[in-house]
Design goal:
The complex is a heterotrimer.
Chain A (H helix, E strand, L loop, with lengths): L5 E6 L2 H13 L5 E4 L5 H6 L7 H27 L12 H28 L22 E6 L7 H9 L4 E7 L2
Antiparallel strand pairs in A: 1-3, 1-4, 2-3
Helix pairs in contact in A: 3-4
Chain B lengths: L20 H13 L5 H27 L14 H25 L6 H24 L7 H5 L15 H34 L3 H11 L6 H34 L11 H27 L8 H31 L3 H12 L3 H13 L7 H4 L2 H28 L14 H24 L5 H6 L12
Helix pairs in contact in B: 2-15, 3-4, 3-8, 3-9, 3-14, 4-6, 4-15, 6-7, 6-8, 8-9, 9-10, 9-14, 10-11, 11-12, 12-14
Chain C lengths: L9 H27 L1 H15 L1 H16 L2 H14 L2 H18 L10 H6 L5 H32 L3 H29 L12 H24 L11 H32 L6 H7 L1 H22 L2 H5 L1 H27 L14 H23 L9 H4 L11
Helix pairs in contact in C: 1-2, 1-15, 2-5, 2-14, 2-15, 3-4, 3-8, 3-9, 4-15, 5-7, 7-8, 8-9, 9-10, 9-14, 10-12, 10-14, 12-14
Classes of the chains: A alpha+beta, B mainly alpha, C mainly alpha.
């Protein structure tokens, strides 16, 4: 039993999983996660998740892209190989706006995506929750709440009883590591 | 708005009643997971794939023969290549508009069409990319004057040229659209992984899903990233066609050098793009029984967007004509006169007929709600937008400032084969897409089902 | 108006009095200035009018747009847009000084005999046609304003019937097409033709975008003054404020986009018939003002409005909106100023800010806001029988909880 990853309750209704998650947090559980086939904002609230850092990473990427894009143009057209083209100044800042704009967006977008994947720890080839056969429904129409064994309040019996007592629960399963 | 519950597509639901989380999943996933491929798929794919071979054929001919295969010559150095490039890029823009701008505007009806609209974007960009890549006939030399890398000649691209801006804009657009599309697919790959009927498919879709498990902590970051991508894609799509319009407008040629070009090109792109979405959506929903998800409301909304952008394009034509006169510049006045009544006058008026007159029939609700008429108009608009680029490019170039270098232009059989070939390529990619990927975003469809939203109560 | 059965916020009553006083006083002082330097008065007055008339015009546009797209933000501000658009007949009266004194402002009214460019345009740019168009524009816009307000009153009385809804949609659709075209030509007539040699095909679009931005800004400011009072208190919601913030942000980006497009194309082309416009504006003191506009109309507000909290909180959004309104005025000055001063493209246009350039917009603005508030007060401040505003009130947390 000590090797258990956690206990997982199954729900068939989004409201039920949100309420159960809120109840679990009230009861003092912290190390837990809910699973749903589509994003439910109320679940993030129920888990009291802090503000996502993706936006900050994205902003950083955008600023880096702006500096890199403009810097590349300035360096190559003014310092490395200045050349008179059409009588325009070496530092044609007006003309440098569009490419710098594009690199800003490019870097910001990739920072947002890679940042999101990194924060989520993806790609992740293996995860214990997949050991529960019913969990395949999490990508279709089922909702799950998993209280993990690492939680200080976790107790195989009490936690199971707690989960089973939640309204709307369909099943409580053990998650093998 | 008040409702007349029946017969009025404007107030029709965006998803047919009676659907549940499971029915939405099953219906969409089954198209992909079905073992048997429908016969009409094979038939359509074979035809499209055969037509796509024209691309290869043209390129082989081009590499051996050079651009002498084409109709471009002095003074018309830009011909089918840029016409088709702009046409394809423009078509792609509706996909980004639907997936990004309508998401930001909280237009929930976009949900069922955004996935295939995004796919359309990517495939249109693939087709568009063929032209700049091969337009010199010597694609390998493109590397050092397009890409900023330290080469042995010590050369750098000319950043004062809009053509290099175009490289930055289009590559950014292609990569960001691909990433946006893929991010949207991750949760759906997980669904397909969990529902795949054999190990191989489970593995392939499993790799695509990156091990997605629908964790609330993941959704939290995911939603943030998805919205940010939408927020970035919106100014991006505007910038791409703006830069395309700069290809013309920063020059000094009458007919090209006009400050209205950026917004008017962007509107034209969306216009052509929505026409293409309609061209694809009307048969797709019939063949795959997707009328529950792509409802009459969608067609009505798209028709309205098409009408609105068509009117903006018409505004562009009107401003061009008025300011040509108002400028009092003899070059401008000659250009617009030549465009309307010169040797290519018939093309100008055909363009007005296709792009200005025809879509205005969509004001009439009865015509707008007729699927056959809508399909017809969407084809007419696609033709009209191609004519628009033809008229802008050819009529502005063929009457040079120097009458001794005046000339005429006509696409050769190889110009046409390249163009028709990319249409085949586009359709081929679409066929592959509807067979192997969910054409409608399953997880997003679930968010708009009744009962999906859970109100937050602050405890 | 005295026996209004709908709640009228005390803040509105206060603003009515203060704006009338300010407007009349400032314009009276300008009137004294007109006695000593009538030409300068007309120039300052035209600048002020060109800016302020953009608000009723932008309101008419946004009113039509929200009838077509729906959305809660539009329902919340519909009465603002309607009230602004009903100031258009009065705006025509305020236009009379320009209409009567146009010959003193516009160079095409007395062209040099050898000016072939102006001679070519005489068919369009002549006093009769110019005045006729102005009268036509105001008449047409007033007609639109009157119809929308009349039908809106019908909705207050009988609810939004399907017939009424389709009438709204049809008028909004056709109206928007007409409005965009007429505003384009109005902006050419009143603004661009100050420099009759110069032209830019995007000019009308830039004016329109500036107009909707100014409208959004002024409506947010006025709304913030009354948001804590009925009837707004119970319909205000955070997400609607967020939408208003997003629209302000988007319109400002659109403004920057249109202006950058025009500048980049003309800068790159560097043609003698176009570039003087910018030479007069990017050098010397005008150049400094232009840089100020770029930084404080776009860059800084853009950075601030990136914040979700600023867009969602009316208390933070309103100062931003007020600032943008001021920047719209500064930008209009930068756009018209060199031409009003008669510098059609010398490289070093002299910068000379007359005191009436400051006082005329203050006076005219206060008067316009006063007229707007009078109109706003005459009807219920939010539309009645409006599904957007009713159904959601139940499960919504008030914005200022």
């Amino acid at each position: 039993m000590s090797a258990l990853y956690g206990l997982m309750a199954e729900f068939h209704d989004p409201k039920a999983v949100v309420e159960a998650t809120e109840a679990a947090r009230m009861a003092g559980y912290r190390q837990m996660d809910a699973y749903s086939p589509y994003p439910i904002e109320a679940l993030s609230e129920a888990l009291a998740l802090p503000k996502s850092h993706v936006a900050t990473i994205c902003l950083g990427g955008g600023i880096a892209g702006l500096v890199a894009g403009y810097g590349l143009q300035y360096w190559s057209s003014v310092i490395e190989y200045p050349m008179n083209i059409g009588g325009r100044p070496f530092h044609s800042w007006v003309a440098f706006i569009p490419p710098a704009y594009e690199t800003t967006i490019l870097f910001a977008a990739f920072s947002a995506v890679l940042g999101m994947l990194a924060l989520n720890g993806l790609p992740q080839p293996y995860h214990p929750v997949f050991n529960v056969p019913a969990f395949a429904g999490a990508s279709r129409d089922k909702f799950f709440l998993c209280i993990e064994a690492g939680d200080p309040l976790f107790d195989a019996e009490k936690t199971r009883a707690f989960l089973a007592s939640q309204p709307g629960v369909a099943d409580v399963a053990e998650v093998q590591p | 708005m008040a409702s007349t519950p029946h017969l009025d597509p404007a107030s029709a639901p965006i998803i047919a009643p009676g659907h549940t989380f499971s029915s939405v999943t099953d219906k969409i996933a089954s198209i992909v997971l079905a073992r048997r491929t429908p016969l009409h798929w094979f038939l359509g794919f074979t035809i499209a794939f055969s037509v796509a071979q024209l691309v290869l054929l043209t390129i082989v001919r081009l590499l051996f023969w050079g651009i002498g295969s084409w109709g471009v010559t002095v003074p018309i150095g830009w011909g089918f290549d840029i016409i088709n490039f702009v046409w394809w890029i423009g078509i792609g823009h509706a996909g980004t508009l639907i997936s990004a701008i309508l998401l930001l505007l909280k237009q929930e009806w976009r949900t069922s069409i955004n996935r295939f609209a995004e796919a359309m974007t990517l495939f249109a960009v693939v087709c568009a990319a063929q032209y700049p890549l091969f337009h010199t006939g010597r694609p390998w030399i493109a590397a050092y004057w397009l890409l900023p890398y330290p080469n042995t000649m010590g050369l750098w691209p000319n950043f004062r040229s809009p053509l290099i801006w175009d490289v930055f804009a289009v590559t950014t657009y292609a990569s960001v659209s691909a990433v946006f599309w893929y991010v949207g697919l991750i949760p759906d790959f997980a669904t397909l992984r969990d529902r795949a009927k054999n190990k191989l498919m489970a593995m392939v879709y499993g790799i695509g899903s990156m091990g997605w498990r629908g964790s609330a902590r993941h959704w939290h970051n995911y939603e943030s990233a998805y919205l940010l991508l939408a927020g970035l894609a919106t100014p991006l799509v505007v910038s791409v066609h703006t830069v395309v319009s700069f290809d013309f407008a920063v020059g000094v040629l009458p007919g090209w050098h006009a400050t209205i070009f950026p917004p008017y090109f962007v509107a034209g792109a969306i216009y052509a793009g929505f026409a293409m979405v309609l061209t694809l959506a009307i048969p797709l929903r019939a063949w795959y029984g997707l009328k529950d998800f792509i409802t009459d409301r969608h067609l009505d909304n798209m028709a309205k967007v098409m009408l609105a952008t068509g009117l903006i394009v018409a505004y562009g034509y009107a401003m061009e004509a008025f300011f040509a006169w108002y400028s009092a510049s003899s070059w401008e006045i000659f250009m617009i006169r030549n465009r309307m009544f010169g040797p290519y006058g018939h093309m100008y008026w055909a363009l007005i007929l296709c792009n200005v007159v025809a879509p205005n029939t969509l004001w009439v609700p009865r015509l707008r709600h007729s699927h056959a008429w809508l399909f017809f108009i969407s084809l007419v608009v696609s033709v009209g937008m191609w004519l628009e680029r033809y008229v802008i490019i050819v009529t502005s170039l063929h009457r040079d400032f120097l009458p001794s270098s005046w000339g005429m232009y006509q696409g050769t059989v190889w110009d046409w084969s390249f163009f028709i070939g990319t249409i085949g390529l586009f359709v081929t990619l679409l066929y592959l897409f509807v067979r192997f990927l969910p054409a409608i975003s399953m997880f997003e469809m679930k968010t708009i089902l009744p009962g999906a939203r859970v109100e937050e109560h602050h405890s | 108006m005295t026996n209004a059965t709908h709640p009228v916020p005390p803040a509105l009553e206060r603003m009515l009095t203060s704006t009338l006083g300010l407007g009349l006083a400032a314009l009276a002082v300008c009137g004294l200035g007109a006695l000593s330097s009538p030409d300068q008065f007309l120039r300052s007055y035209l600048f002020a009018f060109f800016f302020w008339v953009s608000v009723p015009i932008g309101s008419l546009g946004l009113l039509m747009l929200q009838h077509l797209t729906g959305g809660r933000w539009g329902a919340l501000l519909r009465r603002f847009f309607e009230a602004w658009s009903r100031t258009l007949p009065a705006a025509f009266v305020l236009f009379l000084p320009v209409l009567l004194g146009y010959a003193k402002i516009y160079p095409w009214a007395h062209p040099p005999a050898d000016d072939k460019i102006i001679a070519h345009k005489a068919l369009y740019l002549n006093g009769t046609a110019w005045a006729g168009r102005a009268i036509f524009f105001f008449a047409l816009w007033s007609l639109f304003a009157w119809l929308f307000s009349k039908w809106s009153a019908e909705q207050d009385r009988d609810g939004l019937t399907p017939g009424l809804s389709s009438r709204f949609q049809a008028l909004a659709g056709g109206g928007l097409v007409t409005l965009v075209l007429t505003v384009t030509f109005a902006s050419i007539d009143w603004g661009m033709s100050l420099n009759p040699h110069w032209f830019s095909t995007i000019y009308g679009v830039i004016y329109l975008v500036g107009a909707v931005l100014a409208t959004m800004a002024v409506c947010i400011v006025v709304l913030s003054r009354m948001a804590h009072e009925e009837p707004f208190l119970h319909v205000m919601r955070k997400d609607t404020v967020h939408d208003l913030g997003k629209l302000l942000f988007a319109f400002n980006m659109l403004w920057a986009y249109m202006n950058l497009s025009q500048f980049l194309i003309i800068w790159s082309g560097n043609l003698p018939e176009e570039i003087p416009y910018y030479l007069a504006r990017i050098n010397g003191a005008w150049g400094a003002l232009g840089l100020f506009v770029v930084l404080f109309h776009f860059v800084v507000p853009y950075a601030i409005l990136l914040s979700r909290d600023v867009k969602r909180t009316l208390r933070l959004l309103a100062p931003m909106a007020a600032w943008l309104l001021l920047m719209r005025l500064v930008d209009t000055y930068w756009t018209l100023g060199p031409d009003l001063a008669g510098h059609h493209g010398s490289e070093a246009a002299a910068f000379h800010l007359h005191w009436m350039d400051v006082l005329a917009p203050v006076g005219l603005g206060a008067l316009f806001v006063h007229l707007f508030l009078r109109q706003l007060k005459s009807r219920p401040l939010v539309p009645q029988h409006e599904a957007e505003l009713q159904t959601e009130a139940a499960h919504a947390a008030p914005a200022h909880a």
